[in-house]
Each structure stands twice: as structure tokens, then as C-alpha cells.
Task: inverse folding
């Protein structure tokens, strides 16, 4: 079986269009086997996403995209 990863996703917990549940469901429908939820500056959606990932068999990779300022510029790491 071919593994398909999506390692950079945002949910409505930050600036995404889909809820954590909808995001995992959409990934599953598209054949994604491993999904990283990397919302901006929050881990709020991870519990919800994990519940759906457990139900669908998608491997959830927990993450976060942190914002920082340096020399008057904002960076997302």
C-alpha cells in the first residue's frame, strides 16, 4: 500500500476552512494515510482531530506552526 502524507494542515482552530473533524475526514476520503495538524499558535483542535483519526484509521501527527517576530517581521515556524 502506498503511504500518502500531508504534513501541513490548518483547521478552524486557527485560519483553516474545515473543522479538525472535517479535515481528517477529507484527508481520509482523499487517501491520506498520515496527516499533520499544524494550526497557527494553538493545539486546540488536536483532541478532536485525534478522535476522528482513530475512527478512520488516519495516523495523526501532532504539530503546531509557531509565530515569532524578528527584526520587525513576523515568521511562521
Result:
Amino acid at each position: 500500500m502506498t503511504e500518502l502524507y500531508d504534513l501541513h494542515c490548518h483547521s478552524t482552530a486557527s485560519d483553516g476552512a474545515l473543522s479538525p473533524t472535517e479535515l481528517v475526514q477529507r484527508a481520509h476520503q482523499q487517501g491520506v494515510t498520515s496527516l499533520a495538524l499544524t494550526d497557527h499558535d494553538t493545539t486546540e483542535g488536536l483532541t478532536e482531530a485525534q478522535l476522528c483519526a482513530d475512527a478512520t484509521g488516519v495516523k495523526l501527527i501532532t504539530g503546531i506552526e509557531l509565530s515569532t517576530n524578528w527584526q520587525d517581521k513576523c515568521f511562521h515556524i
